[in-house]
Amino acid sequence: MDRTEHVYSKAGNFNSFNTTNNYCYGAIADEHPEIMRWLSPLDPRRRHHDVRTDRLDGVGNWLLETSQFREWKSSEGGADEAVLFCYGDPAVGKTYLR
Amino acid sequence: MLTASNLSSLVIDSLCDEPREDGIAITMFYCDDFRDRQELTATNIMGAIVKQLAVRGEVLGHVQAAFQKAKMEVGGRGLRLPDMVRMLKQAIATLHQVFICIDALDECPPQHQLELLRSLKDILRESPRTRVFLTGRPQVEADITKCFADRLMVPISPKAHDITIYLEKKLEMDPEPVAMSDGLRAEILGIIPKEISETYAHPQPPFHTRSYVDLSSVDSSSFH
Fold first, then answer.
1. Does any CB of chain B come closer than 8 Å to the CB of residue A9?
2. B11 lies within 8 A of chain A by CB
3. pLDDT at B124 over 80
4. pTM for the full model?
């Protein structure tokens, strides 16, 4: 049975690509609301949607070009480079510009 | 303009947009969603990650089986953190690689923050291909380093390019564009990005990684 897997995408909802025997998150939540509530009352989709709606294209792209991000993503370092921590005070620069 | 949450959403989107082989999943959680403040526990955060992996047929099967089992016991037993970690490990084991992005870790209550980090450590021990992306204020670095000695770190500070994009957008939305001349616009875009990016060029490093005055050469007898 061919189904479509949905993951978070640039469109803010879900992007889709074909796989086999996988289900859409929304469909899972609709079909098994009791199980979803049992797993967690939290659902990060709304927050992700809000944040990405406010984000300006191009801002922060420099992070994707850093050696740390590339090393982390490549998985070549195995467990040693499995964690990337980006630190800073909230809204760096925002207050300054208001 | 540039927030840790913005960076998290950018990382999530860039990972989602990459063409990749099957069996790779990207999951996320934002600890600064105040709608969920009361329920922000390590168990619930892990549960929210498992939920996102349950789109996979094989993961859903495990979850359904665990749910049915729990339902039979004491009229529907709730999940404890070790149960949730076990379930997440089981889900990750069915996949090639899982990315876990957790934003604003400092907004998580301290006891849950440490439990969450220890649980992630436990998961990475068994699944070293798993990648964990964390953002937070500098003060959470000590706990992160306690659990992940080899963590990679990047300071977040707005670059001149970020500020230019922000200002251009603001100027575009100016309700009184007639009051703006080309000269003033050029001046704003020329001076402000440079000045602000220089102000934030060297963000304060996490507390315990700062260098302190070397006291080794101080004669200890002078303290008596």
1. yes
2. yes
3. yes
4. 0.79
